Amino acid sequence: MRKMTSAYANKMLRSLEEDKEFWVNKEMSSSTYVAAINEEPVVPEYDYAEVAATIAELDDKIAIIKHALNVTNANAKVQVGDTEMSVDTILIKMAQLNRRKAILDGMRKQLPKAREEQHSYMSRNAVPEYRYINYDLDLIKQEYERVSGIIMEMQMALDMYNQTVQFEVDI
């Protein structure tokens, strides 16, 4: 059993994934070779059993760490403002709020009145058309700031949790 924080576990996962990528690439480049009929082949060093065992060992460690992270994310409670939330709920809510923030960002950047582009040849002499916003621009700007604040508050609580709270991993 080993204790680690979420931040450490994620760094360890990145390292294990890089190691796995190395072995997968080694297998791809060393498991075959090309040689002309009339030349002595240069056979790369390759041991299938060693490579397969190493990749399987890395996959096992990755699965164990990811499972431990998932369990702790589902069970651990973090205080976000006045609300206590599980880490996985925070991650889900942050993703939802970030999508909403992107929409609000586009809306807050709209001009109250903008001329529409005419793309067809037939519309050259047509009367210009304008696109108008159908919402209170100040309200959208306030909502954008409110959603940004909630995301920041969640991120700060999550960062504190990830750096300080330890859980056990059976590796």
Describe the structure using short key phrases.
171 residues, alpha+beta, two-stranded antiparallel ribbon, 4 helices, flat
Task: Note down, in words, how this protein is organized.
It is built from four helices and six strands, in the order βααββαββαβ. Helices cover 60% and strands 13% of the residues. Helix 1 packs antiparallel against helix 2 and helix 3 runs antiparallel to helix 4 (137-164). It has helices at 6-30, 48-75, 87-108, 137-164, and strands at 2-5, 77-80, 83-86, 113-115, 130-132, 166-169. The strands form three sheets. Strands 1-6 form a two-stranded antiparallel ribbon. A two-stranded antiparallel sheet has the order 2-3. By secondary structure, it is α+β, with helices and mostly antiparallel strands. The mean pLDDT is 95.
Low-confidence stretches: none
Protein structure class: alpha+beta
Task: Report on the biggest sheet.
Answer: 2 strands, antiparallel
Distance between the termini: 6 Å
Strand content: 5-15%
Write the layout of secondary structure elements.
Blueprint lengths: L1 E4 H25 L17 H28 L1 E4 L2 E4 H22 L4 E3 L14 E3 L4 H28 L1 E4 L2
Antiparallel strand pairs: 1-6, 2-3, 4-5
Helix pairs in contact: 1-2, 3-4
Quick recap of the structure?
This protein has 171 residues and is α+β, with helices and mostly antiparallel strands. Helices cover 60% and strands 13% of the residues.
